[in-house]
Write a structure and sequence with these properties.
10 helices; Serine Threonine Protein Phosphatase 5, Tetratricopeptide repeat; single chain; two-stranded antiparallel ribbon; mainly alpha; 267 residues; 2 strands
Length: 267
């Protein structure tokens, strides 16, 4: 009897019925439980699965929309920052972006006239140039020419100021105010409409390469980083702004604070 049982088990396992594959079921079929008498339960499970899928797709859409809104808010924040910079500059008479380490105006006495006709020193008005060269902006006197260009900035004649500073750096490549002139050019090319970001970047790069020890270098590095950001090169912008923090973090330079704020707000 024991022998029969021993022989019977292998025979049953090797039979076609035992080796038949399990039926393949479609989980998306709402009637898959019909044959088992659980049609209602099966339909409910199917409905729940479909509802979960719909909710997941909805959530994905919400996440994508929120991501888009966050990117928009960052860009709007950057635009507002630049606009506020310009407005503050217009009110204070400084550069178009004076929030970062203001460019020092030259200590040059500009001659004007009081109501009584007597001469007086006035820093806000540029002197009248009577011996300008063919470019219309240089006179052969660097201090006067720089003051004239600076006066155009203060009167918000940015296009003319760009031409004046371009003439200045061309004629006086090694003057004491040439680094500041390059800095102004970098600022002004962002202040005008439409912006010329490529020209702005080149101006700041010229300052950094030709005058690496000038006191405007930290501010120029920071500004160049923001220009890279506006150009869409966010990785390069991050690297330069981080370099400003690493190199000048212990100096108390205002460019360091601005670099930290920019990185915190945009990355």
């Amino acid at each position: 009897m024991q022998l029969r049982k021993t022989l019977l088990v292998p025979l049953l396992l090797s039979s076609p019925l035992a080796l038949a594959q399990a039926p393949v079921e479609d989980i998306n079929d709402p009637n898959r439980f019909a044959n088992s008498g659980n049609a209602t339960m099966g339909a409910q499970v199917y409905e729940q699965i479909q509802q979960l899928r719909t909710e997941i797709m909805t959530l994905r859409g919400v996440v994508e929309e929120q991501g888009h809104q966050i990117r928009q808010l960052k860009q709007q924040g950057l635009d507002r920052y630049i606009d506020i910079d310009r407005r503050l500059a217009a009110l204070s008479g400084n550069a178009p972006s004076a929030a970062v380490d203001e460019v020092d105006a030259p200590e040059i006495p500009l001659i004007g006239k009081n109501a009584d006709g007597k001469s007086s020193e006035k820093g806000a008005e540029a002197p009248t140039v009577s011996n300008a060269t063919e470019d219309g902006f240089t006179t052969g006197q660097p201090s006067i020419d720089y003051a004239n260009a600076y006066g155009l900035v203060k009167s918000r004649e940015y296009e003319k100021a760009i031409e004046a500073f371009k003439a200045y750096v061309a004629r006086y490549p090694d003057d004491r105010y040439t680094p500041n002139a390059w800095y102004w050019l970098g600022e002004l090319h962002v202040a005008v409409e439409p912006q010329n970001l490529e020209a702005s970047a080149k101006a700041f790069q010229n300052l950094l390469s030709a005058y690496p020890d000038n006191n405007k270098v930290p501010a120029a590095m920071y500004k160049l980083g923001t220009v890279y950001f506006l150009q869409g090169d966010k990785q390069k912008a991050r690297e330069l702004l981080t370099h400003v923090i690493d190199r000048y973090g212990n100096t108390g330079n205002s460019a360091v604070k601005k670099a930290r704020e920019f990185l915190r707000s945009n990355y």
